[in-house]
Design brief:
This protein has 251 residues and is of the alpha+beta class. Helices cover 48% and strands 17% of the residues. An 8-stranded mixed sheet has the order 1-7-6-5-2-3-4-8, with helices on both faces. The radius of gyration is 26 Å and the shape is elongated.
């Protein structure tokens, strides 16, 4: 028996017939909800919860568990592929994602030197994307920041990371004044390099003491009810909000 539903009806003075009419079902159907614990259809749950001034998840706790299960399944389905290291991501995938993007291209890196090397015409491709209405946001590490200095020391690369960032930025100087393109510099700890194209995102998490290229890369595609792709896209937005616009001048 669904004691929560029965008690809520008693407290609100709602009879079986009244609840049945509100939900658009037979009275016997409501009786089964109470006596057998049967879970109603979603629209009937919402109507009943509104009439009884109660949370749907209180009246039918199993719904919350089912929702969590569906969310977990959807999130797992968002993972398309795992690459053992970033170098294993096919060049064709990088090119497809960039050329097919229709709404968003977001890049979060420290230097991202490989990005231009993998796509030698990257500035032109990003320019074309902006011209077809794609919002392009590129976020590089601030070469003068403590975060860059720390990462350089952790990866034991002899003070070269700042120089790599300055070199990498030269590829994108032509985009600074282009409508639809924006370049910023961040000073945050880079836990993962992110490359977002509409509903797809490549996530390259960083392991302590290892260069980004040696770390695994995950390919996600956002799905309704999933959480993983949105998790990393939201992370990008947090860094972007704190980053400083780059004018194209020497730094």
């Amino acid at each position: 028996m669904n004691e929560r539903l029965r008690t809520a009806m008693l407290r609100q003075g709602i009879a079986l017939e009244q609840l049945a009419e509100e939900c658009g079902v037979e009275t016997k159907t409501v009786e089964r909800w109470i006596n057998t614990g049967r879970v109603p259809h979603r629209r009937h749950r919402w109507a009943a919860a509104k009439l009884l001034v109660a949370d749907e998840s209180y009246l039918w706790p199993g719904v919350l568990r089912q929702s969590d299960t569906r969310k977990g399944e959807a999130s797992r389905s968002e993972l398309l592929e795992i690459f053992p290291d970033r170098a294993s991501v096919p060049r064709e995938l990088w090119l497809r994602l960039l050329s097919e993007a229709q709404e968003h291209i977001d890049v979060l890196v420290f230097s991202g030197t490989f990005y231009a090397q993998t796509q030698p015409k990257v500035a032109r491709m990003l320019s074309h994307a902006a011209q077809r209405g794609v919002a392009v946001r590129l976020c590089f590490g601030d070469p003068n920041s403590q975060a860059v200095e720390i990462r350089d020391r952790e990866e034991r690369i002899g003070g070269t990371l700042a120089a790599k960032i300055r070199s990498s930025l030269t590829y994108y100087r032509s985009l600074v004044d282009l409508d639809g393109c924006e370049v910023r510099l961040h000073s945050t700890t880079l836990y993962a390099s992110l490359f977002r194209y509409d509903d797809e995102i490549l996530v390259n998490p960083h392991a302590y003491g290892e260069p980004a290229s040696a770390n695994a890369t995950f390919h996600f595609r956002r799905l309704d009810g999933g959480t993983l792709a949105d998790h990393y896209m939201t992370s990008f937005d947090r860094v972007w909000a704190e980053a400083v616009p780059w004018s194209g001048a020497e730094i």
